Amino acid sequence: MTQSQTVVSTLENGVLNVTLNRPDKLNAFNEDMHLALRAAFEQATKDDAVRAVLLTGAGRGFCAGQDLGDRDPRKSDTKPDLGHTLDTYYNPTLRLMRSLEKPIVCAVNGVAAGAGANIAFACDIVLAARSAKFIQAFSKIGLIPDAGGSWSLARILGEPRAKALALLAEPLMAEQAESWGLIWKAVDDASLQDEARAIATRLAGGPTIGLGLTKRLIQAAPTQDLDTHLDMERDCQQTAGFTDDYAEGVTAFLEKRPAVFKGR
Ligand code: LHQ
Fold first, then answer.
1. Ligand 1 atom closest to the CA of 135, numbered from 1
2. Which residue's C-alpha comes closest to atom 33 of ligand 1?
3. Is the CB of residue 110 below 6 angstroms from any atom belonging to ligand 1?
4. Which of 216, 220, 211, 219 is closest to 240 using CA atoms?
5. Contact partners, residue 150, CB within 8 Å, separation at least 6
6. 143 within ligand 1 shell (Cβ under 6 A)
7. Ligand 1 mean position to 69 CA, how many Å?
């Protein structure tokens, strides 16, 4: 199915394939693309047939952040309210991605700049083509890293690397991003889509509720103490234990056969 030309989405084997599709602009965000990407994550949230998401970009780039052609200061007498832009476009999508209790795999097929890089870092398992690079381009135009970037960079990398990347806006190659723990894996360009699809398909055939609860726990861990977290693990394990997929997983183990999970 396709809701928009700027984001193409299709459902295949439980995987919602979501492709940013403005290749002549390196998939920079215009209003239509913002709304279409959000709609895709809304579908992923509501539709039980979606059990994993695979996000990538069409053409040679992943996403170059906000379309700066839409923001030409020479064509406006008033200063823009970028806080409103974040409230209206980026932040709802980021919140949907983080609260979606299904895995999001990201295949970074080429340059990821500005908000484009930070959308990738909000995904759960990020693979990048070896030739891809990540650029916190914001400081070049007087802005701060948005789309969750100042949060995820500080959390994942710590202050020294987060600050240098954000203040200098120098490109970070995929292999360096992997060695810093910012992404899961850098892979050969030619095998990126196959490797990412294999991971997404495997996750879509997994115990969706257990995977979603695992995502919730790992995201909650940095902001709570161990006691609180142990209680949360208890509650999530209780929920997981009530699923058909848990019964199937154990039965399959005892019967020495592969489990067939239904996502419930
Ligand atoms: C683009 C863009 C682009 C339009 C490439 N826009 N056309 C911002 C403002 C408001 C609200 C809140 O949030 C934000 C968040 C942000 O994302 S700020 C950061 C915005 N992004 C950037 O500053 C990155 C700008 N792009 C670049 O620095 C380069 O294009 C990169 C390094 C991404 C790629 O460089 P190249 O591989 O050399 O490609 P290119 O520069 O030749 O770009 C190819 C085409 O894509 C070109 O169009 P053309 O018609 O000349 O072929 C670019 O103008 C266009 N393009 N990024 N963000």
1. 32
2. 64
3. no
4. 211
5. 144, 162, 166
6. yes
7. 9
Ordered by start, the domain boundaries in the chain are 2-204, 208-254
Cβ–Cβ < 8 Å for 206, 258: no
> Is the CB–ligand 1 distance for residue 82 below 6 Å?
yes
What does each of the 264 residues of the chain score in pLDDT, given as a tens digit?
555 899 999 999 999 999 999 999 999 999 999 999 999 999 999 999 999 999 999 999 999 999 999 888 998 889 999 999 999 999 999 999 999 999 999 999 999 999 999 999 999 999 999 999 999 999 999 999 999 999 999 999 999 999 999 999 999 999 999 999 999 999 999 999 999 999 999 999 999 999 999 999 999 999 999 999 999 999 999 999 999 999 999 999 999 999 999 999
Question: What is d(CA 196, CA 127) in angstroms, rounded to the nearest whole number?
Answer: 7
Task: Give the strand pairing for 104-108 and 133-135.
Answer: unpaired
The whole-number pLDDT of residue 75 equals: 87
Q: Ligand 1 centroid to 197 CA: how many Å?
A: 27
Tell me if 26 CB under 6 Å of ligand 1.
Answer: yes
Nearest to 49 by CA among 11, 2, 86: 11
Quick one: CATH architecture of 208-254?
Orthogonal Bundle (1.10)
Write the single-letter amino acid at 136: Q
Give the Cα separation of 208 and 48 in Å (integer). Answer: 10
Fold (CATH) for 2-204: 2-enoyl-CoA Hydratase; Chain A, domain 1 (3.90.226)
Kindly report the protein residue whose alpha carbon is nearest to atom 38 of ligand 1.
Answer: 111
| Ligand 1 midpoint to CA 26 (Å) | 7
Q: Is 247 in the pocket of ligand 1 (CB under 6 A)?
A: no
User: Does residue 80 have its Cβ closer than 6 Å to ligand 1?
Assistant: no
